[in-house]
Design a protein that fits this description.
The chain has 380 residues and is of the alpha+beta class. The chain has twelve helices and 15 strands. The strands form three sheets. Strands 1, 2, 3, 4, 7, 9 and 10 form a seven-stranded antiparallel sheet that branches. It has a five-stranded mixed sheet with strand order 12-11-13-14-15, sandwiched between helices. Strands 6-5-8 form a three-stranded antiparallel sheet.
Length: 380
């Protein structure tokens, strides 16, 4: 049986103040920065090709990292989430929304969103989704949703019986129903709810954004706190610094559960664009020796006192908290900035250490069996 705060997200409708939180106008304004010929979200398909829409959607998603948007969305969540999760429950907020642009006959150009549930794409069960259309969502152009019980049953059967994608889609469509919403409304749901799109046979485009929150102590799946999720009020991502002339190195490590399986080229692929964005001209690639989970290499490089060290992720730090704090404090004492490229976070002060530790300890990857695993039920 679902708890009351879970029922608030079991395919529920949120009516919000559209004048106060005018997301459709925000989205159109941002789109017009790169596509001024777009005059209405509903007709974007008449002005842009499918490939151009992909680029515009990315621009809008990146705009979620602007401080003004983050502040506005923080206020939105602070107003509408606490009554639905418990007023004393802490949460994190998704860094960037996912913009969904469903053009008429989108299947023709391969844009139809296949049926899935959030856990299948890495969202932990501790996440809650605000699905917010910026246009009218109706008929075949809206999202189609399944009830929670049948979603769990289908999730179990598709894996146990190894259904084809065609069968999975067919069965989902038998049970799916349309979410009918207007601007000023959001749909609230769990990650276990199966959902997807039909081919849009309406004559206008539907635009919507997915935004999620993560509850403290719950499952984050693969959506790491600090990376995919941020603390309310953490706007560091909006800052871009110029480190021209500073002495930096990069560092790759395999000393934690998180980083042990990430190949060196993939760690560097995360660090490189971070360095470019912040004009960091590093002087060398460094790495930790395998199996040295206490990170003596990182300690050595800190003692060399460069201006900064760029790491792939804060989750690449040792899992030993006492040792991790020792390294963090040593870096501060020696004036060495530790930059975590994936999380766009920097340790410069004691307060920064507290923030990083909050991210590392906020939630858990998994705390119980899924609906298709032995030991279920689990009402996370």
């Amino acid at each position: 049986m679902l708890k009351d705060t879970q029922l608030q997200w079991d395919n529920a409708t949120l009516n919000y103040d559209l004048e106060k939180y005018n997301w459709p106008k925000w989205a159109l304004d941002v789109i017009q920065e790169v596509a001024p010929n777009v005059t209405a979200l509903e007709t974007i398909h008449k002005e842009l090709s499918a490939s151009e829409i992909v680029k515009v959607a990315a621009h809008v998603q990146n705009a979620c990292s602007r401080k003004d948007f983050m502040q506005k969305f923080d206020a939105f969540v602070a107003e509408y989430a606490p009554p639905r999760i418990g007023k004393d429950v802490k949460y994190m907020i998704q860094r960037q929304g996912t913009l969904r642009v469903v053009i008429p006959n989108q299947a023709k150009v391969g844009r139809r969103l296949a049926f899935h549930q959030g856990v299948f794409v890495g969202n932990g069960r501790g996440c809650r989704t605000f699905w917010t259309p910026f246009t009218k969502a109706t008929g075949t152009n809206t999202m189609w949703m399944l009830d929670l019980d049948i979603s769990r049953e289908i999730s179990r059967k598709v894996l146990e019986e190894k259904w084809s994608l065609e069968k999975f889609e067919e069965v989902c469509l038998e049970h799916a129903w349309p979410i009918e919403l207007e601007p000023g409304q959001s749909h609230l749901f769990f990650q276990e709810h199966i959902h997807g799109n039909k081919n849009n046979e309406e004559d206008f485009t539907r635009v919507a954004m997915d935004m999620r929150i993560l509850l403290e102590g719950e499952e984050y799946g693969r959506r790491n706190p600090g990376g995919f999720m941020r603390l309310p009020g953490d706007y560091e991502v909006a800052e871009t610094r110029d480190y021209t002339g500073k002495r930096f190195i990069t560092y790759a490590g395999w000393s934690s559960k998180y980083s042990s399986g990430i190949p060196l080229p993939m760690q560097r692929a995360i660090m490189e664009p971070y360095c470019v964005k912040n004009k960091i001209a590093y002087t060398s690639y460094e790495f930790e020796n395998e199996y040295m989970d206490y990170q003596p290499g990182l300690e050595y490089y800190i003692n060399e006192k460069p201006d900064g060290i760029v790491l792939c992720s804060m989750y690449g730090m040792t899992d030993d908290k006492e040792r991790r704090l020792e390294i963090f404090n040593s870096a501060i004492e020696k004036g060495v900035e530790l930059h975590f490229a994936h999380e766009l976070t920097v340790i410069r002060t004691k307060e920064d250490i507290e923030k990083v530790e909050t991210y590392l300890n906020f939630a858990v990857p998994k705390k119980g069996p899924q609906s298709w695993e032995d030991g279920w039920p689990n009402n996370t």
